[in-house]
Amino acid sequence: MNTVQEDGYCSRCDLCDTEVIQSMTDLLLRGLATASVDSTTGDIFKSASSVAVAVKTELENYLLVRTEALVPESVGGDEDHSDQLMKASTRPTEFLSDLIDDFVASKRNVLSHVSGFLSSESRLNKIIDFMQKMETENVWALDARKATAETILESIDMKCIFHCPERFVEQDKLADHRSQCKFRVVNCKNDGCSASFSAIHTEEHDSICPFKALPCEQLCEQHVIRCEMDKHCATVCPMKLINCPFYHVGCETVFPQGNLDSHCSKLLQTHLLYVLQASTRHNATVNDMNQRLQLVEKAQSLNEMSGTLDVRSLTLIIKEQEAKIKKLERDIKTQEAKVKKLENEFRSRNA
């Protein structure tokens, strides 16, 4: 359909909601594929491709006749038609889907009604494959489907929710209106986003656009695009909460990672004390283990454990104790190195 038409003395805007038109356009192609597949199932003389052009003409005429007759029928007082008109005016995509379903049902041959076929995976795969084939071969061109969808929408959208009904005598006024019409196509202004949509959906798109720059959810000073917000908050955000590096020796403070240097500087002496206390605890543990080892060795020499342990199990126990002692000694050396490093840092800061 042309975007500007002459209707008597008036020029019509004719812009439509692109999202609705796209949905209706997709429905038309799927409806044609479904009707073509179902009408030739099991027929050795016909294929979906051989009937597609004729079925397209039938489907298009059927839909145009049904939608154009909807308003007169509802005005005649038929309650069912009035309900259909209400549905068409508020949910045009759903209404079109119902019409297409009725048409497809009328095209099914006997074999298509075989129990289980209509819900079979094989049928669905055939429909999808044929849709792709029709798109490749341009059986029902996209522009032609859009024109049909726009015609149908204008016929049923009595409340003008999804298309613009404005009319103008002068072309200049029409052009001015179209530049401001709520159904004009606009591009997303967020860097990196290539989406386009009717202007009426700008706020809706902006609320979900993955490229929209937003203030950090953890209230740091940065602005981050929506699709990278989670990664930012979990990694580089200065306000991400972390444990103190000296958590394992006793400092259980939690703070934003941007405050790490400040925290360590202010609590240098406290951290030194934690390290010294940890070293003392390790030394006590080593002494305790040595005492236990001595008792085990004494018990071995006096044969006090001969009733419960044999030589092999006793040897294993001794080796385990020795391994634990060596590990504790290594830990002590590590802690002593940390203490020396912290002492040096403390001296340098106070020099």
- Please identify the structural class as seen in this structure: mainly alpha
* Amount of helix: 55-70%
Largest sheet: 3 strands, antiparallel
> Given the structure, what is the number of helices?
12
Cα Rg = 39 Å
Order of helices and strands: EEHHHHHHEHEEHEEHEEHHH
Number of strands: 9
Shape summary:
elongated
* N- to C-terminal distance: 84 Å
Strand content: 5-15%
Uncertain segments: 1-9, 304-309
Mean pLDDT: 82
- Spatial ordering of strands, largest sheet: 1-2-3
Zinc finger (TRAF-type): 205-251
Protein name: TRAF-type domain-containing protein
Keywords: Coiled coil, Metal-binding, Zinc, Zinc-finger
GO molecular function: zinc ion binding
Description:
- It comes from Dichanthelium oligosanthes.
- Residues 205-251 form the TRAF-type domain.
- With 351 residues, this protein is mainly alpha-helical.
- It has a domain at 11-69 and 82-185.
- The chain is built from twelve helices and nine strands.
- It has helices at residues 18-40, 48-75, 79-90, 92-107, 121-137, 142-156, 171-180, 202-206, 229-234, 260-266, 268-301, 311-350; strands at 5-7, 10-12, 167-168, 185-187, 196-198, 213-215, 223-225, 241-243, 254-256.
- The protein has a three-stranded antiparallel sheet with strand order 1-2-3. A two-stranded antiparallel ribbon has the order 4-5. The protein has a two-stranded antiparallel ribbon with strand order 6-7.
- A hairpin with an 8-residue loop joins strand 4 and strand 5.
- Helix 11 runs antiparallel to helix 12.
- The model is unreliable at 1-9 and 304-309 (pLDDT under 50).
